């Protein structure tokens, strides 16, 4: 299977996560009205999904190492489809949160399988390029997701969004079963008792270089999750933009992510992925620093939107480079290492998102200041990244 074919199928799979996160964002005001709850409370349904996706990956990763990527991925899609249908039937916030938790469980088994499949096939700079190509393909989903949600709202009710998600997951299961798994080289299953499972996780936790990249992923993703959670409030409530304008503004973030991803691929021929990662994390921090300044001095809407787009767009280069480096040192424990990475980023980002929904209130400054704080932490970790990787490679080669 060519890298493009593999990236296309895996990109379609990874797209399930952004669709479940972003497609219903324009519906937040409608859901809040239907459930008679504050706008910010609807954000808890997003936080619950994200946090569950993180914790469940700790189970899904080792299971995929033991039983194979195929069984775990298809099981995850089945759970996701059922939960999506149930979310569409809910008539209260607590019930919706419950089924979003179940949906996150299925989504986690899908999310953890994709990086593990990549690591099964390639490593090093090739992995960074393949992750970049996957990211480029999957950018279509978050770019189109708010527009899809806005279209569903125009045609009917917000629950249609989740019925579409259920249909997509079923379609994806059929495509993967027929087009992906028969063409992958079989990977031997490994028996992983609890003692060994704990030992494997400890190997990842004790690997300082890997955990540095896990920390970068957590902080950068938390910054983006803060924006996603509050984007409807920021644009639709604070600045009063329409559903269609919100969809276009959200899509602009994804367009820049795609541009950054495209620019990253040729740069990998001249620079190592870890050097590019440090530059991109610094660029994101600069954009957020400017954003805080604009908000602090009550700047115009176009300046706020431009800063958000610049900051979120940097994720297009950060994610593929960081994932390749985080998984580089565990070629035989790809599922476990991927689970640690995914669990950390989703769980912590979900907690950060939930806390921000509870304490931010009706103010913009605390939201952007929290995003900047996360970014500064990522800069601190990324600054020493090249030296850490160089030392690790020197040790492994000697």
TrEMBL record:
The keyword Transcription does not apply. It is found in: Cell inner membrane; Cell membrane. InterPro entries: Efflux_drug-R_Bcr/CmlA, MFS, MFS_dom, MFS_trans_sf, Sugar_transporter_CS. One of its GO terms (molecular function) is xenobiotic transmembrane transporter activity. One of its GO terms (biological process) is xenobiotic detoxification by transmembrane export across the plasma membrane. GO terms for cellular component: plasma membrane. It is a multi-pass membrane protein. Keywords: Cell inner membrane, Cell membrane, Membrane, Transmembrane, Transmembrane helix, Transport. Residues 1-398 form the Major facilitator superfamily (MFS) profile domain. PROSITE patterns: MFS, SUGAR_TRANSPORT_1. Pfam families: MFS_1 (PF07690). The chain crosses the membrane at residues 38-60, 72-90, 96-118, 130-154, 160-180, 213-234, 246-263, 275-295, 301-321, 333-357, 363-383. Belongs to the major facilitator superfamily. Bcr/CmlA family. This is Bcr/CflA family efflux transporter. The gene is bcr_1.
């Amino acid at each position: 299977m060519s890298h493009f074919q593999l990236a296309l199928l895996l990109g379609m799979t990874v797209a399930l996560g952004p669709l479940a996160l972003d497609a219903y964002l324009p519906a937040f005001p409608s859901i809040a009205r239907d459930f008679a709850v504050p706008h910010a409370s609807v954000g808890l349904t997003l936080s619950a999904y994200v946090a569950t996706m993180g914790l469940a990956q700790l189970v899904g990763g080792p299971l995929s190492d033991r039983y194979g990527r195929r069984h775990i991925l298809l099981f995850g899609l089945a759970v996701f489809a059922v939960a999506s249908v149930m979310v569409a039937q809910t008539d209260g916030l607590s019930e919706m949160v419950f089924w979003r938790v179940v949906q996150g469980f299925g989504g986690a088994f899908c999310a953890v399988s994709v990086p593990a499949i990549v690591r099964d096939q390639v490593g090093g700079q090739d992995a960074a390029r393949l992750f970049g190509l996957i990211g480029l393909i999957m950018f279509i989903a978050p770019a189109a997701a708010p527009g899809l949600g806005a279209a569903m709202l125009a045609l009917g009710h917000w629950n249609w969004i989740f019925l579409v998600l259920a249909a997509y997951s079923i379609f994806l299961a059929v495509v993967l079963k027929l087009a992906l798994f028969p063409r992958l080289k079989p990977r031997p299953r490994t028996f992983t008792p609890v003692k060994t499972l704990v030992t494997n996780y400890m190997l990842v936790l004790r690997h300082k270089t890997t955990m540095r990249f896990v920390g970068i992923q957590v902080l950068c993703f938390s910054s983006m999750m803060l924006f996603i959670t509050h984007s409807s409030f920021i644009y639709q409530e604070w600045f009063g933009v329409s559903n269609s304008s919100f969809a276009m503004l959200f899509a602009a973030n994804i367009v820049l992510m795609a541009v950054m991803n495209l620019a990253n691929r040729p740069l990998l021929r001249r620079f190592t992925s870890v050097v590019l990662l440090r530059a991109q994390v610094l660029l994101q921090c600069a954009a957020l620093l400017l954003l805080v300044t604009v908000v602090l001095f009550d700047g115009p809407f176009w300046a706020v939107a431009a800063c958000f787009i610049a900051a979120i767009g940097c994720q297009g280069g950060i994610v593929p480079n960081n994932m390749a480096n985080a998984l580089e040192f565990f070629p035989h424990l790809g599922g476990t290492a991927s689970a640690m990475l995914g669990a950390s980023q989703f769980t912590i980002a979900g907690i950060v998102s939930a806390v921000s929904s509870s304490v931010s209130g009706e103010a913009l400054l605390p939201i952007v200041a929290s995003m900047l704080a996360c970014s500064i932490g990522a800069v601190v970790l990324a600054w020493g990244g090249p030296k850490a990787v160089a030392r690790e490679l020197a040790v492994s080669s000697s």
